[in-house]
């Protein structure tokens, strides 16, 4: 289990309210989510302030001290990803804390792959040697990240969304072969700052699209310095709705998705989930 949040917009946007100040902000979820679970084994915030990813991670709970709030307050970018961890695979350490990154790529995962020690060898066997050698931690999440990047490196003609669909479908199939009674949990977010893709599989996930400026009811601001020649557009994805006064929509279970040019979610079913 974990909780994640991602924002993708056509203009630099502040995410402090969604991460810290909103009724169900990610920081509040780290102390206790809507299911009553705590996610106190570390946190990470990543964004692209100048087109290059910047990642800050710590191993303590997001609700402890001012560090998470300060990290959230500095974010002003077109794309941001944040995560609070409840450790299931791997010790509590910076190397095991999300988001993970490689070059421009940022990745976060909510869920668990059961029987990971058996599954791990199948993932490693399909990885490009570069990605296999750069694994730093112990988590199932980092292995999934490196596996998906390997597939995209090997077959870029498939496109990013289809690569993620095929890769996650294969992981789900392997998990079912190893132990049909223990299904995988595979909510992910993957972005290079220009493209954002993800999935929902057996964990909660919601999204909110914006096609105009919105005055935040928490802080009274719009979160952007708007360029009037273009309409503001954005999409947010979160394990739970972070605000209670907006129309968050549930992402259907068993799909992959990508943010479109008009900042909505295009969805495709995972294999066997139609």
Any overview of this molecule?
- With 274 residues, the protein is of the alpha+beta class.
- Helix content is 26%, strand content 27%.
- It is built from 7 helices and 13 strands.
- The chain has helices spanning 16-21, 26-31, 67-74, 116-126, 129-133, 140-154, 160-178, and strands at residues 2-14, 43-47, 54-58, 76-85, 100-102, 105-110, 187-191, 196-200, 206-210, 234-238, 249-250, 255-259, 265-269.
- It has a 7-stranded antiparallel β-sheet with strand order 3-2-4-1-10-9-11.
- A hairpin with a 6-residue loop joins strand 2 and strand 3.
- The longest helix is centred in the middle third of the chain and has 19 residues, at 160-178.
- It is globular and about 50 Å long.
- 46% of the residues are buried.
- The model has no long low-confidence stretch (mean pLDDT 92).
Beta strands, count = 13
What is the beta-strand fraction?
25-35%
Oligomer: single chain
**Fraction of residues in helices?**
25-40%
Order of helices and strands: EHHEEHEEEHHHHEEEEEEE
How is the main sheet built?
A: 7 strands, antiparallel
**What structural class should be given to the helix and strand makeup?**
alpha+beta
- Span of the ends, CA to CA: 25 Å
Overall geometry comes to globular
